[in-house]
């Protein structure tokens, strides 16, 4: 008797289905009545666990390694001295050394005008298939650097007081037999002569390298920046009038931690529509079509979605402060959904805080 040959299968395996038709595959998973989930197994509002390791780089003033799923980024902070004589647009400051300065607007102008915070992002070759060797910096890397730069200043993360290097001239000794003057006038002249002078600033070069890239790069990069800044320690610096230069102490005990304000955390989500791009995707059709808010999207989900929202919140005080809201493309997310998403961002802030301990 001849052996029966099994009929060929008319269906694809799950990995093949995902590669050939990613949108229908993700839609099938989300509409599963028994277990609605995403392709990666997460629920729509479930983010990937975040892991933070600080002091990862031995030759940086501060560093951090952040991993969320398969997205891994390393951040190193390098501090260098910038004399005020090398700043073309420098404007002398009036406050004396150690004096309290509550003018936040002046602080922001100080950091921006003198470029005291310099972020730079590099997407390493091999971190994702689309990043090839020997090519110029991608648009994504430049965009991420600009967003990090803007958020550093808008959130006022770094206190510029800790970046200033002051010098107070020594008190001059008067020769014997000098003409006596009024004591009040003498004290006033001495105070005027010994007025502290701002000689230099610390410039922080914030370099980020993506070792592995699987979506949602901004959240990972910002988390790494905050962790590295909070890990940064600056050497004790003073002005040497004999050398006419700033000298730094080599003592590890004399290093001072950088003053970082608060803990802003970024939370990003994308909108997945039931209909694919170009399939009656007008604004009215988008609102009527079924959609899902996917928190912390991976690389596949980002390629299938055209609407993205990022909220930066800081819950370190008595109340939640919304530091930034960015939205790109689409018309699904409105005021009501945005209010609810802020609550999701608060939960993400708590996760990042626990991972930072």
TrEMBL record:
Gene Ontology cellular-component terms listed: cytoplasmic exosome (RNase complex); nuclear exosome (RNase complex); nucleolus
| Any one of the GO BP annotations | nuclear polyadenylation-dependent rRNA catabolic process
Q: Where does this protein reside within or beyond the cell?
A: Cytoplasm; Nucleus, Nucleolus
InterPro entries in the record: ExoRNase_PH_dom1, ExoRNase_PH_dom2_sf, Exosome_comp_Rrp42_subfam, PNPase/RNase_PH_dom_sf, Ribosomal_Su5_D2-typ_SF
Keyword check for Aminoacyl-tRNA synthetase: no
Record flagged with keyword Nucleotidyltransferase: no
Task: Please tell me where this protein is predominantly located.
Answer: cytoplasm
Name of the molecule in the record: Ribosomal RNA-processing protein 43
UniProt GO molecular function: mRNA 3'-UTR AU-rich region binding
Q: Where is this region: Disordered?
A: 174-193
Organism superkingdom: Eukaryota
Name the residue ranges with Acidic residues bias. Answer: 178-192
Q: In what residue span(s) does the Exoribonuclease phosphorolytic domain sit?
A: 46-235
Enumerate the PANTHER family for this protein.
EXOSOME COMPLEX COMPONENT RRP43 (PTHR11097:SF9), EXOSOME COMPLEX EXONUCLEASE RIBOSOMAL RNA PROCESSING PROTEIN (PTHR11097)
Q: Hey, which family's this protein in?
A: Belongs to the RNase PH family.
The alphabetical list of record keywords is: Cytoplasm, Exosome, Nucleus, RNA-binding, rRNA processing
């Amino acid at each position: 008797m001849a052996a029966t040959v099994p009929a060929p299968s008319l269906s694809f395996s799950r990995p093949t289905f995902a590669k050939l038709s990613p949108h229908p595959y993700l839609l099938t998973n989300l509409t599963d009545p028994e277990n609605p989930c995403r392709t990666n197994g997460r629920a729509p509002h479930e983010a990937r666990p975040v892991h933070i390791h600080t002091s990862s780089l031995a030759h940086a003033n501060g560093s951090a390694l952040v991993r969320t799923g398969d997205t891994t980024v390393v951040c190193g902070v390098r501090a260098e001295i910038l004399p005020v004589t090398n700043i073309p647009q420098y404007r002398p400051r009036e406050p004396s050394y150690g004096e309290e300065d509550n003018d936040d607007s002046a602080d922001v102008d100080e950091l921006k005008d003198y470029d005291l915070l310099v972020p730079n992002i590099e997407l390493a070759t091999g971190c994702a298939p689309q990043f090839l060797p020997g090519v110029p910096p991608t648009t994504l890397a430049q965009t991420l650097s600009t967003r990090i730069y803007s958020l550093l200043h808008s959130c006022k993360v770094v206190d510029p007081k800790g970046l200033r290097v002051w010098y107070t001239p020594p008190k001059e000794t008067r020769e014997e037999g000098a003409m006596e003057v009024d004591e009040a006038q003498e004290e006033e002249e001495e105070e005027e002569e010994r007025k502290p002078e701002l000689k230099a600033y610390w410039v922080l070069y914030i370099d980020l390298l993506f070792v592995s890239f699987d979506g949602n790069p901004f959240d990972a990069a910002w988390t790494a920046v905050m962790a590295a800044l909070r890990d940064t320690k600056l050497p004790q610096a003073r002005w040497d009038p004999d050398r006419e230069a700033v000298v730094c102490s080599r003592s590890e005990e004399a290093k001072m931690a950088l003053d970082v304000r608060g803990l802003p955390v970024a939370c990003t989500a994308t909108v997945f529509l039931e209909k694919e791009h170009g399939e009656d995707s007008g604004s009215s059709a988008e609102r009527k079509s079924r959609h899902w808010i996917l928190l912390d999207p991976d690389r596949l989900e980002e390629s299938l979605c055209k609407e993205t929202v990022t909220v930066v919140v800081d819950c370190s005080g008595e109340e939640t402060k919304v530091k930034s809201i960015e939205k790109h493309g689409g018309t699904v997310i409105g005021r009501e959904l945005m209010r609810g998403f802020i609550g999701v961002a608060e939960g993400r802030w708590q996760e990042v805080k626990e991972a930072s301990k």
